Amino acid sequence: MSEKNNSFIIKTAVLTISDKGSKGERKDLSGPVIREMMAEIGAEIVCADIIADEKEEIKAAICSIADEEKADLILTTGGTGFAKRDVTPEATMEVIEKEVPGLPEKIRADNISITPQAALSRARAGIRKNTLIINFPGSPKAVRECLESVINIIPHGVKILKGEITEH
């Protein structure tokens, strides 16, 4: 069930977290997957950027977008694994005001049967100001599977954050 509705557009920012991508050494394949899938539910992509796996840079990007109300939703891709440079979940947790544990729990639960390695994801989700932030893995296949898991419930959460729904 999609909540595509012309009167309510989800302003969405997509942040690809990749050292090589930020240097132009690797093409971003996951960001476009997110943009395409979000467009299918009527979201407006207001920002798409590639930044290095640097905690302070990730935090600054999330804070700038949320604090300046540039987007209702920030979707990150990359930096959720076990590599030393994977710090997206830590950066996210340092800047959110409220954690939303159910989203990454649902994503992992839905995807473990497809890819057992989904259990290794450290992705997090939370709220800063009136912006929902969700971390996704870096591979195009994984990001598609993970976003499919929650894409139909994201609009409801954003509507609550924006005051469009007051009773639930």
Task: Spell out the key features of this protein.
globular; 168 residues; 6-stranded mixed sheet; alpha/beta; 6 strands; single chain; Molybdenum Cofactor Biosythetic Enzyme, Chain A
Report on the architecture of this protein.
Helix content is 39%, strand content 19%. By secondary structure, it is α/β, with parallel strands linked by helices. It has a single domain (11-161), classed as Molybdenum Cofactor Biosythetic Enzyme, Chain A (3-Layer(aba) Sandwich). It has a six-stranded mixed beta sheet with strand order 2-1-3-6-5-4, sandwiched between helices. Helix 3 crosses helix 4. It is globular and about 45 Å long. The two termini are 18 Å apart. 40% of the residues are buried. Residues 1-5 have low confidence and may be disordered.
Shape: globular
Going across the biggest sheet, name each strand in turn: 2-1-3-6-5-4
> Could you name the ranges where pLDDT drops below 50 across 5 or more consecutive residues?
1-5
Distance between the termini: 18 Å
Mean pLDDT over all positions: 94
